[in-house]
Amino acid sequence: LPPFSSPQYGRKSYMVKGMAFSPDSTKIAIGQTDNIIYVYKIGEEWGDKKVICNKFIQTSAVTCLLWPAENIIVFGLAEGKVRLANTKTNKSSTIYGTDSFVVSLTSNVSGKGILSGHADGTIVRYFFDDEGSGESQGKLVTHPCPPYALTWASSSVVAAGCDKKIIAYGKEGHIIQTFDYSRDPLEKEFTTAATSPGGQSVVIGSYDRLRVLNWSPRRSAWEEAKPKEIAHLYTITALAWKRDGSRLCAGTLCGGVEQFDCCLRRSIYKNKFEMTYVGPSQVIVKNLSTGTRVVLKSHYGYEIDEVKILGKERYLVAHTSDTLLLGDLNSNKLSEVAWHGSGGNEKFFFDNENVCMIFNAGELTLVEYGSNDILGSVRTEFMNPHLISVRINERRQRGMEENKRLAYLIDIKTIAAVDLVGGYNIGTISHDSKIDWLELNETGHKLLFRDKKMRLQLYDIESSTKTTILNYCSYVQWVPGSDVVVAQNRNSLCIWYNNDAPERVTMFPLKGDIVNLERSNGKTEVIVAEGVNTVSYTLDEGLIEFGTAIDDGDYRRAAAFLETLEMSTETEAMWKTLSRLALEAKQLHIAERCFSALGHVSKARFLHETNEIADQVAKEYGGDGTDYYQVRARLAMLEKNYKLAEMIFLEQNAVEEAMEMYQELHMWDECIVVAEAKVRCVLRFAPLGDSV
């Protein structure tokens, strides 16, 4: 039991009037009539230790309480105030005040707006964020009696009380519907109400009875379902809905807690999945073998017609009257996009794990899982997935946050490449023969395609150059996670470790046909079927990994990989390449590591001292410190560009440092020139009569 402020009066000196879980269910807030709210940390497991983490002392009794968002508790007081308690700052403040006892509190489905009901019948609305709805704040309406049963559904506000009437109000307080039970001798006053998580159903509790209202999107009206009557249940004092909408709990005056299974219908799909329709716009999909659950919900409140599981039983597809719902069961990424009647003639392709390809009436539409906007839409008559390539942020590159690209056929001899982020064309490739296969690399900057004459072409999108790299090509694929190309030419295995130089190809003789390419555990293998036997050819992982890291500008990854290799002629060449690129990118710590590996002690020491200067400047002024004049001058010295270093010093009037540089290098003539220039400058600006 929670502590109490007056121990001498015993445990009955207060009543608990409000109770709410935090959004993550790891804390619980308790509102009491002895003018205090306690917040308990209850943990994630049943046996975790329970401790008080917050307490908020008030000036009057707490009458109701809810927890709509993280760190924000909203509660009502007997004196009429509606207040906010912040669990992060441990402070409370008044949102608004009235002169009437607060009898009920509720929030909208998103938790960004609240309603309070008062003893004089007033219902007040307040928004933390109106989400662009433009709805007014303040007094919404005056209900005929105190609205003890008050809830905010997705389409209206439902209120009820001791007059035995349930009234649904519109967005600005006008009456939409009234359900009058005042002439029913068996009905008692309504005491509490709750809205389903989807906002499509409302349950109102009274004596021995639960009344259910369901919103009909097609009629735009509330429809009353058959009431749930339970003899000797007595007055229902509390209602709470499970977050996925599958369960409803009711607490009674006599201390009982009843749990109800809430679903419109339940079905088994292919003996592998259980579909539970908990509302018109919400379906719970449960994998019977693993027990994992996905809640598929229409954010616009549209009724879901049917749910299908396609693409090797991994992807969800469902239609509503105006939208299309898609989902990935493995990643739990769900999407809802605007989609108007197409007669169910769409064809779905799930070859890409990040995006769903939908063909309908000569149009290709792309929907990224987890996004509620259509990624892109183009006209094409070619529905073969081998003639379409989509890359969605598959390999991050330095300086590029979003990289989403598409390549597809305009006609049988023309390829178009599109930047899906900007929505513009980045390349059009015309060819002299029919194209039967194409694929972008993971960064979307290179395109491989093959024609009917078995010629393999490499197209550089940035430079708009096309190169024929192989004839009689029977197999081709990008190595996953890299820009390395593997192909077969009759009896030869061809590998391009650096496709910027397509003439440099590594070839091995083959006796069979390539059937697959596998990359796992730091090893890349080409699987070849030689008659009844299967043979694997291992690729040079060093060339693959290092080249990919360099292409992506990920020099830390390149250095980390080189550290795993023994020093050899090839490894030394890689360290030299990395040192040059790291210096150009001003990644000085990596450059220092490279010179250490190469045994260039003097350069490594010089860079170490430079890094110390840069780190000190970064600590004092922010940034990475590489723009500081001493760092820039030292880098110029490292490149043996002493005149540039001198200029950088003199720009900062650091003449002494420029002279010291030349003295250390024994470049006496240059040092004297700098000194003479300084003397001339002093003489020029010295006042007449002064001695120099």
Q: Which SSEs are present, and which pair or pack?
A:
Blueprint: E1 16-21, E2 27-32, E3 36-41, E4 51-57, E5 62-69, E6 72-77, E7 81-86, E8 91-97, E9 102-107, E10 113-118, E11 122-127, E12 138-142, E13 149-152, E14 157-160, E15 165-169, E16 175-180, E17 192-195, E18 201-205, E19 209-216, E20 221-224, E21 228-229, E22 236-241, E23 247-252, E24 257-261, E25 265-269, E26 273-279, E27 282-287, E28 293-297, E29 307-310, E30 315-319, E31 323-328, E32 333-338, E33 347-349, E34 355-360, E35 363-368, E36 374-379, E37 388-392, E38 404-411, E39 414-419, E40 424-430, E41 435-440, E42 446-451, E43 456-460, E44 465-470, E45 473-478, E46 485-489, E47 492-496, E48 506-509, E49 513-520, E50 523-530, E51 533-538, H1 541-552, H2 555-562, H3 569-584, H4 588-598, H5 601-621, H6 629-638, H7 642-651, H8 655-664, H9 668-685
Antiparallel strand pairs: 1-2, 2-3, 3-4, 5-6, 6-7, 7-8, 9-10, 10-11, 11-12, 13-14, 14-15, 15-16, 17-18, 18-19, 19-20, 19-21, 22-23, 23-24, 25-26, 26-27, 27-28, 29-30, 30-31, 31-32, 33-34, 34-35, 35-36, 37-38, 38-39, 39-40, 41-42, 42-43, 43-44, 45-46, 46-47, 47-48, 49-50, 50-51
Question: What do these coordinates show?
Answer:
- The radius of gyration is 36 Å and the shape is globular.
- It is of the alpha+beta class and 692 residues long.
- Mean pLDDT is 86; it is low at 1-5 and 688-692.
- The longest helix is centred in the C-terminal third of the chain and has 21 residues, at 601-621.
- The chain has 9 helices and 51 strands.
- The strands form 13 sheets. Strands 17, 18, 19, 20 and 21 form a 5-stranded antiparallel beta sheet that branches.
- It starts with 15 loop residues before the first strand and ends in a 7-residue tail after the last helix.
